[in-house]
Amino acid sequence: MKPFLLLLLTTVLACAADEKPANPQLFKHRITGLFSHEREPVLREAMAEIPGVELVSIDFDHAEGTFRYDPAVAFKGTKPDDIEKSLNNKVGQATHYTLGIQPLIATPPDQLTRVEIPIAGLDCQACCLAAYESIFKVEGVAQATASFKDGKLTALIDPAKTNRDDLIAALKKRQVKVPGSEPVKP
User: Do 145 and 154 meet the contact criterion of CB atoms below 8 Å apart?
Assistant: First the structure.
């Protein structure tokens, strides 16, 4: 019996020696679906469900979050290039795919332009999410908010990739009413 215990103890110690202690680091990711401040608690609740990943801070103005995790522990067996995709899937599952994680936008913040568009007919969070999603998917949109309370959509855009007319067209395609954007009748 003693040789078995010695073998077992040796195996356990060898396995423990192979495991590296956690080495959490800070990472920034763009957060999709963060179209209003009321969405922050949803994000925080979702992050509490994801083991090994901590939400450190949120930069709402740029739709970015700082997260702390050890990639080797929180995403064990995941290739480094697939970690962000894996985190996106975990956040999506925890929020019924209303929030997500994407790479940071490459355009420097000082080169982005703020665009405000009046919107009408949005009377709930789901309507605002639909308006937000139609805009956020437009190439060149770095961040967007939609508020039925304020009756407007706000976006930070890369003017080299998109413009106000593109955003209005995306909203109209989603059947969001944009007051003052109707063509003038002769």
Answer: yes
Tally Cβ neighbours within 10 Å of residue 146: 28
pLDDT profile of the chain (186 residues), mean per 10: 51 52 88 89 95 95 93 95 96 94 90 93 78 89 86 92 95 87 54
Residue 182: what pLDDT?
A: 63
Q: Are 67 and 27 in contact (CB under 8 A)?
A: yes
Strand order in the sheet with 152-157: 113-118, 152-157, 141-147
The amino acid at residue 35 is: F
Identify the residue whose tokens are 């990639």: 71
- Tokens matching residue 83: 């970690």
CA 53 from centroid of its chain's CA atoms: 14
Give CA separation, 27 vs 40, 66, 76, in Å: 18, 6, 17
Quick check: 119 and 176 in contact, CB under 8 A?
yes
Summarised one tens digit per residue, pLDDT across range 70-93 is: 999 999 999 999 999 999 999 999
| CA pair distance 1, 90, nearest whole angstrom | 46
